[in-house]
Amino acid sequence: MAKKISLEDRLFLVQRNFGKKSHITIDQEAFRKDPVKPILFICPARVFLLNESSGECVINHENCLECGTCQVASRYVKWTNPSSGFGVTYKYS
User: Fold this and answer.
1) pLDDT confidence tier of residue 48, bands split at 50, 70 and 90
2) Does the pLDDT value for residue 26 go beyond 90?
3) DSSP, res 83
4) 7, 42, 55, 36 alpha-carbon torsion, rounded to 10°
5) Domain-embedded: residue 10
6) Do 87 and 81 touch, CB atoms closer than 8 A?
7) Which residues contact 59 (CB under 8 A, 6 or more apart)?
8) pTM score above 0.70
9) What is the total count of domains within the chain?
10) Which of 1, 48, 75, 82 has the fewest CB atoms within 10 Å, measured from its CB?
11) Residue 11: inside a domain, yes or no?
12) Would the pLDDT of 61 be above 90?
């Protein structure tokens, strides 16, 4: 039987190299109006967090796996490819 690998162990296999400028933007007004806010729980890397005091979405773009789930789950997320030389690299072991 194969050993189960935790999400944290799987994420360890991903090397990230992101610049200071985010490749993800959010229409904050549309985010605040959304009663469900699916990007807060659908992102496997927990890129999006709710700022309780302002009601805005905080983006931790450094955690991004470039899976595109956020674009599918929400119309107010704009995701573009990271600048040349930046992004994720997957290690296999």
Assistant:
1) very high
2) yes
3) P
4) -150
5) no
6) yes
7) 22, 24, 25, 26, 47, 48
8) yes
9) 1
10) 1
11) no
12) no
